[in-house]
Amino acid sequence: MESLIPANLGVVGELIGAVLFWTVLWPFFLLGLLLTPIINVALRTTLHRDLRYRNYQNYQDALLAFKRKQRDFWFNLSPFEFERKIASLYSRHGYRTTVTPASGDEGIDIVMYSGAEKIIVQCKRHGSPIGPAVVRELYGALAASNAQSAILVCTGGFTRGVYEFARDKPIILLDLDRILELEKNAA
Questions:
Q1: Dihedral sign for Cα atoms in the order 71, 142, 150, 100
Q2: Which of 47, 72, 99, 184 is deepest in the core (most CB within 10 A)?
């Protein structure tokens, strides 16, 4: 302020300075006082949103890594371990399960009961989709075992021929996504 007003004006200079402050600078000063909380809230909101977005991205990355680990877990089991884990998974859902011996199982890996209902299960730990021959064998085992239904479990999924054959038959097809869903909902 002093650079605008010559020093030798004295009281008149001070008066001009006060008028200049109250007429020209005071509105900016007042505007600054009024806008400071609004700007702070806006900045805080933006920073908070950025932080939430980063946290969300970190969560999504961790979830993706976890899902990859889950998938790897099922693929890295031996066939016998795979059968035992599927039986354990169904046990946690309230079924009574028995894993059949490795040899002479006649295409049945697990026998399960839900009340009086008998369900047979065939487990295939494959990296690629299986074809209709496997589901046909399971259907034959279903008829021979006097079970009410069958479940075909395959980590690699199923070809269209499997879905077409199993349609309208008491056979449930369980791929890796459905295994993970069962795992997620298990008690």
A1: negative
A2: 99
CATH code for the domain defined by 79-185: 3.40.1350.10
Residue-by-residue pLDDT tens, the chain, 187 positions: 455 555 556 666 676 666 666 666 667 777 777 777 777 777 677 777 777 777 778 777 777 677 767 788 888 889 999 999 999 999 999 999 999 987 666 789 999 999 999 999 999 999 899 999 999 999 999 999 989 999 999 999 999 999 999 999 999 999 999 998 988 887 6
- For 39: left if phi > 0, alpha if psi spans -120 to 50, otherwise beta; the answer is alpha
Backbone dihedral region for residue 110 (phi beyond 0: left; psi -120 to 50: alpha; all else: beta): beta
